[in-house]
Amino acid sequence: CSLLGQLLSVPRDSTWRQRVKGFGLVLVVSVVATLVNPYGWKLHAHLGDLLFSSGLRDLIDEWRAPDFQAAESRPLEALLLLSIGLLAVGRRRISIFPLLHLVVWVHFGLLAVRQVAFAAVVAVPVLGELTFDLWPALRDQFGLGSRFRWVEEFGRRASEWAAIERAARWPIWTIVFSTLTVLLTALGISVPALGLGSARFSTTRWPAAAIERLNSEPTDGPLFNDLNWGGYLILHTDPPRAVFTDDRFELYGRDFLEKYLDALQYGPAWNELLERYHFELVL
After folding, report:
1. What whole-number distance in Å separates Cα of residue 182 and Cα of residue 279?
2. What does pLDDT average to in each consecutive run of 10 residues of the chain (283 residues)?
3. Closest CA to 66 of 78, 53, 52
4. Which of 217, 223, 239, 225 lies closest to 278 in space, CA to CA?
5. What pTM, to 2 d.p., does this model score?
6. Using an 8 Å Cβ cutoff, are 132 and 152 in contact?
7. For residues 130 and 90, is the Cβ–Cβ distance under 8 A?
8. In sequence order, which ranges of 49-112 are alpha helices (DSSP H)?
9. Is 122 exposed, middle or buried (0-12, 13-18, 19+ CB in 10 A)?
């Protein structure tokens, strides 16, 4: 993405050529590095088959598209709407390099929940760049008067802070707010607006009560479980139990997972798996 963004950028001077060579070298080295595994290129073929042609991605929560009816998708929704707003009213125009990254990673974030965090990491500095001279643009666009002069003053102060950071070459305010967040978390202080103290296992999503019952069961016989609960079972069963499957689907392979999916729908594979593994418990 960086290499393509640089190729499309201007001016095409000596600095441009140096960056193209640098990004090209990083790309080649990165691709070669992925081949250093016990299976070589076959690992890529295996993952490609599972991810892009088998339909098995729908089994994995983190590979599904974000559900915008769910509360946890609100930050992504806000990020998208903010992107549209800033690109529309801001006086600054970003170059093709950050724009390409923003478009590509927003695309990935809309495809799979697991990519949303990366989309945010890419988007925030791009949107931050668009906030320069934002107040004069809003003032002229909406005819805002002197009552909102404090916003302009805050913008001026923020520009001064940014200049101090650039001179120091350290992200001073980021470090300050990150340290404060860690301290609030360590002290157990809850600030829901910042996401502090609100993260916990949902009893409507995770089988907490069922795990307590499972731990009291005398049998440690074979267990058939929901794929997305596999990691939760590994973490919370006491004594530990061997799970039938979990969301590390690349380890199980396509044939196994297709049988699992058929068994979930009580297809022919259920009797085949039951006869082979002799399940004593189903979760």
Report:
1. 45
2. 93 93 96 95 87 72 87 88 88 88 94 93 89 77 72 78 82 87 85 67 85 88 91 92 88 87 92 94 92
3. 78
4. 223
5. 0.70
6. no
7. yes
8. 74-89, 96-111
9. buried
